Amino acid sequence: MPKNVIIGIHIGTTACRIAAFNDEGEILAQNTKEYSVDYGPYGWAEQNPECWWEAVCEILREFFRKAMISAEDVVAVGVDGQSWNALPVDDKGKPLRNSMTWLDRRATDEARYLLENIGDEEISRVNSNPVDPAYIVPKILWIKKNEQEVFKKTYKFVQSNSYIVYKLTGKFSMDRSQGYGFHFFDLNTGRWSEELSEKMGIPLEKMPDLYNSADVVGEVTQSASLATGLKKGTPVIAGGLDAATGTLGAGVLEHGQIQEQGGQAGNISVVVNKPVKNKKLILGYHVVPGCWLLQGGTVGGGSLKWFVKQLGHLEMELSRKTGISEFKIIDQEAGSVPPGSDGLIFMPYMAGERSPIWDQNAKGVFFGLTYDKTRAHMARAIMEGCVYALNHNIQTVESTGINVSELVSVGGSANSYLWTQMKADITNKIIKVPISDMASPLGSAILAGVGVGLFKDFKEAVNRVVFIKSEYHPNEELHKEYQFYYSVYMELYENLKKSFEKISQKESARY
């Protein structure tokens, strides 16, 4: 059995992914367990946090049961997770309701209240991120207003990774890379702002203690050991935001380096050595001390999964018969359609949109449907639409004066040659793809290794465990072709913005 095993746990939007690595970055064991997002009335998107814990326990027990790794050799565990969760728990860590996920945008009135009663200027001095219903504070205020007993009983509001850390150690925590989702978290000092939390009506005692991402929060308890198979006393690291650990797992930790992630959420993360404020983008702490991440985040990454689930029954049946992933089959079909999808354009605003337009009313749209269009056209148009959204964020980043020449790409979409080449052609940037497609768990494992001294520092860790396997260079002719379709994509949002608002008002009135 290998020694010096480090485990990275990723609590994603649609699945838990766990991987065990040695100190050279080799994957010793990995698995994924899916769970669902519960969509309710207009704007609601919730998740049962017990599903996260059940997935963690199931995967880890399988690792040890099948002797992939030995619990005796695990030196530390790191946990990362999706952001912007409003999850209230009692003093025993029991959830008082389902978690309101980052996709949940019901708290429009509360966001408006913050802007009208505190003001964007005052909030921006502490936390430069836009006041939007997707962020955590409006959701907490929604709970306070609509579920008063839940708010009263809340001991702490925790994030997805800190919930798992609590289940493993019995200790409440929150890492600083998740702090940006709270508008009373000071991005200049890395501390809670007592003044703003008081004005917002959220007592600071309901917030966990803050940790750096590589800090050891505690050790695996006896009960957690029985549930997971991990050895009692194994150190557990605070961990971080999945986009930030994915950035680290891609080897991106120096000022000016850029990571791109394509999964349920699309994301671009630029490492900066000081806070760079742009209201159209997202600013937060990196999991690497002394660094921040300037991010563009979209919601469209899950569009292809939605498409396969709703319209890909033939592909799913073929997948069952052949063992080939339905996404690989769809990928092959989309590859038969020319760039630009014969004029079919998809707007990937399936749950509103985050940066850079920040419009909770935005909707997914197929534009250009004609009788000659096939499901393959629709699949390719979805892929292109997600890249158009990425390109919009890249251009917004470049407007701050940051030069973008290449991206390190991770996430599920990086496994697709078609999709990754498409990113290079549309953005006109070089795309690099690391060997490991488990960037977020690898980043969490690196944090764990640094936290217990397995690695001297982050630079040494990245040099030892992160390797680039391929590069994609843009095709100039295709880039010129795509520029036309991208310009139409940009026009569509402006032309449909009022229509999005009208239909949203009609739908919300039903509830």
Secondary structure elements and pairings:
Elements: E1 5-11, E2 15-21, E3 27-34, E4 38-39, E5 45-47, H1 49-65, E6 74-81, E7 87-89, E8 99-100, H2 108-117, H3 120-126, H4 136-146, H5 148-153, E9 156-158, H6 160-169, E10 174-175, E11 185-186, E12 191-192, H7 194-200, E13 210-211, E14 216-219, H8 222-228, E15 235-237, E16 240-241, H9 242-249, E17 258-262, E18 266-272, E19 282-285, E20 292-298, H10 303-311, H11 313-322, H12 326-334, E21 345-347, E22 365-367, H13 375-398, E23 406-410, H14 417-427, E24 430-434, H15 439-451, H16 458-465, E25 468-472, H17 476-509
Parallel strand pairs: 1-6, 6-16, 10-13, 17-23, 23-24
Antiparallel strand pairs: 1-2, 2-3, 4-5, 5-8, 7-9, 11-12, 14-15, 17-18, 18-20, 19-20, 21-22, 24-25
* Strand element count: 25
Q: How do the strands line up in the largest sheet?
A: 19-20-18-17-23-24-25
- Rg calculated over all Cα atoms: 22 Å
Give the overall pLDDT as a whole number: 94
Number of distinct helices: 17
Strand content is: 15-25%
What does this structure look like?
- The protein has 511 residues and is α+β, with helices and mostly antiparallel strands.
- Helix content is 39%, strand content 20%.
- The protein contains 17 helices and 25 strands.
- The protein has a 7-stranded mixed β-sheet.
- Helix 9 (242-249) crosses helix 15, helix 10 (303-311) packs antiparallel against helix 13 (375-398) and helix 12 (326-334) crosses helix 13 (375-398).
- The mean pLDDT is 94.
